[in-house]
Amino acid sequence: MKIDLSGRTAVVAGATGDLGRTMARTLARCGADVAVHYCKNESKSTEICRDIEAMGRCACAVQADVTDWESVRAMERQVTAKLGAADIIVNAAVIQYEWKQVLDQALNDYESQFRSCVMHNVHMAKAFAPAMAERKWGRIIAINTECSLECWPAQSAYVSGKHGMNGLLRSLAAELGPDGITVNQVAPGWMLSDRDRTGEKPSAALKEMTKVLRYATPPAPWGRSGHRQCSRLSCFGPGPVHYRRVLAGERRRGGRPDVAPVTSTPAGLALLF
Fold it and tell me: CA-to-CA distance for 184 and 138, rounded, in angstroms?
């Protein structure tokens, strides 16, 4: 199965992270032009743009604070001027913080997770969805987390933000469905990030907590043939992982919302597009 995104423009928010950069490059491999969003890591966004342009696709690096409405509006204008109106947005940015138990967690950490999980998605929808609605076609894809299902100790700020995001996107799916816009969430399993690359294996306690047998790592550069069900065509899941849970794929048909799980198989992931 092949996902053909030729002629489409995608925006990946949080594109300089491990998951974001893999999705940005894979969207380009599927034929899309890609706006590579960054907040602070301009050099990485430039590198990703070069990779995308080497595939024969158009790319541009765009800076924005996704928790700030005016900043996201400015990003939308920049994307439209350089690549045209966006057909696909992928919301993968999140504020990083130190996880602690509830009694020790700083209050502003809860506020930061609300801003980067909930308001991030509000801003992106308000900025990009109107043009999608005019064309009667659009795809909004947000990265949630399997932590929302587990709710382990020290995850409270993170999962509360993600649960708020889940409620927002379910409502958004019902609202935008009549305009030909689908809204989906993908919840990857735990994976290595730049912060985790210390040369040491994850602790036994973390392995037990997440029930992961192998940890996801980005393909180098695009992945090995057949090395995962969540293939490079999907843009989601940058490596092998024991399990991958998806909260819900919200789609609208016949005037009413349907909730359909999106699996890690190519057929399931094709539902996103």
Answer: 11
What pLDDT was estimated at residue 197?
A: 57
Asked, for residue 264, whether it belongs to a domain, the answer is yes
On whether the CB atoms of residues 92 and 14 are closer than 8 A, the answer is yes
Nearest one of 178, 170, 183 to 128, comparing CA atoms: 183
CA gap 22, 20 in Å, rounded: 5
Write down the residue that tokens 């990946």 correspond to: 12
CATH number reported for the structural domain that contains residue 98 in this entry: 3.40.50.720
Q: CA–CA separation, 51 vs 46, rounded Å?
A: 9
One-letter amino acid at 269 equals L
Domain holding 68, by residue range, is: 9-270
- Alpha-helical segments (H) within 116-233: 120-135, 147-150, 156-176, 204-210
**Strand order from edge to edge, sheet including 138-143:** 59-63, 33-38, 9-13, 88-91, 138-143, 181-186, 249-253, 256-260
The rounded distance, in Å, linking the Cα atoms of 109 and 143 is 19
Residue 258 pLDDT > 50, yes or no?
A: no
- Does residue 78 form part of some domain? yes
Instruction: Give 48-95 pLDDT, tens digit per residue.
Output: 999 999 999 999 999 999 999 999 999 999 999 999 999 999 999 999
Determine the pLDDT at residue 2.
81
Q: For 104-154, what is each residue's pLDDT tens digit? A: 999 999 999 999 999 999 999 999 999 999 999 999 999 998 888 888 899
